[in-house]
Amino acid sequence: MRDFITEFGVRQALWTSNSVIFAIVGFLVSLVAIGGLAYLAIRRKDRLLLLITLVAIGAFWHAFNYTLIFTGFIRAVPDWYNKGIPFYYLIAPAAYFFVLVSLFPRVKWPRSIALHLLPFTFGLIDIIPYALASPQEKIALLEQIVHNMQIGVQHDYGFIDQRWHYVGRFSMAFVYLIAQWRLIYLHDIEVWPISFTDRRNVIYFSIIYTGHVLMQSGMVLSLMTNVQQSSFMMQDTDELTVISIFYLLFSCWVLQQLLRNLRLKNENYG
Prior knowledge:
Layout: H1 2-8, H2 18-44, H3 47-71, H4 85-103, H5 118-126, H6 128-132, H7 135-147, H8 163-186, H9 196-225, H10 227-233, H11 237-269
């Protein structure tokens, strides 16, 4: 392990900082939760579990991939870089539909649901140039990125300017977020009866998810207005600690969903 850190670590003195430690704990908690929820979602064919699993997987890969870049370890697995772009576009719609189905359990999938997958398709197409690059080109690019993160939004391995992925993704997130809170505001528990626990669960999720989106969107705004300053922010452990804490809170909420569903199963069969 020490040889691995020596060979690939870029910020060896900082990779044990609070921001990275919180992120690692979040990864471990999230992995356990994702594995359990994915198993239950497939076995029960439960769309709520499927939706929250998609949100958790997207958030996990985003945080995990950034941590690999931050520490420099992404150079050990160059093929992992940018593969999450399509899945990041699924986080916001999956979160919205999770709230929709939670508050209105009898609602059917809208016929227009395929439209929500279009950004995923565009993201899938845009990762092709990097996927087709030679191993030497990938490593050379990652060597630049881990030392200067603004290269991550300036490289030409894609069909569009890479910074527009950030802008598009977080613009989408805000639109879905507004619609998500509108659902909570409009929900009438007498017309659409659900338990108090289920409603509270949705509100807790929305609060944590909103905080996570706001923290990350602040960095995106900086990216568009001052690239050099944003590059510094994306490497500063103090700035990243709060984001890591929000990710850890989200991971704990996802784990709580797993435990909650396991408990419900035991009650049903007890």
